Write the structure tokens for this entry.
Amino acid sequence: MSHLVAPSLLSADFLRLGDEIERINNSAADWLHLDVMDGVFVPNISIGFPIIKSVANSATKPMDVHLMMIDPQKFIPQFRDLGVSSLSVHYEACPHLHATVMKIKEAGMKASVALNPHTPVEVLTDILEALDMVLIMSVDPGFSGQKFIFQAYDKVLRLDKMIKKQGLDVLIEVDGGMNMERGKHMLEVGARVLVAGDTIFKASDPVDTIKRMKMLAS
Ligand code: DX5
Ligand code: ZN
């Protein structure tokens, strides 16, 4: 099955946001990845609803929103109203993860749970069946352009085994420090969605970089 590529807008030039989104619209990208941070769960603040609304009005690719915040369940209706396709909440930020996942699904969005680098995939054993996707972080969340954490390969491998063992169809997305070589290896161990920030937006030709990432064999 072919894989998906989701450019992370966090690495874009925010002064030229309209042009950057237009570029993604006209590329081979499958989704547009949006990182929302609260300055509490992660040591950074990114974009809020006024900007996300403008992005939603210009983006033609499905929006894949990654919430790095505490109490993410509070904002589920707003993301639904903006037409968001998939919503990732962090396992580490949700004491009532099952209830949050159910609310996302009831709102009609794909429900995804993100795991920090130190969180073992096995914590999802009893909720996997309810999920559409799992997001494996291959950097500590909060910033683009960070060093890739190699342990993520083994986590994807173990998660893929868990999914197959339970006979489920859950997508594995990987996010952080992705490049061509790591992306290829990630696909080999079971990842289906590659998120990339700096590798795409800081490239001399982002559209061609997306095309090459789409062509990586699995
Ligand atoms: C980090 C974000 C990522 C980040 C990816 O917290 O979740 O989506 O923007 O950027 P790169 O690919 O540059 O690590
Ligand atoms: Zn992200």
In short: The longest helix spans residues 151-165. Residues 129 and 168 are 7 Å apart (CA to CA). Residues 8, 33, 35, 66, 175, 195 surround zinc ion (ligand 2) (CB under 6 Å). The beta strands are 4-7, 32-37, 63-68, 86-90, 110-115, 133-137, 171-175, 193-196.
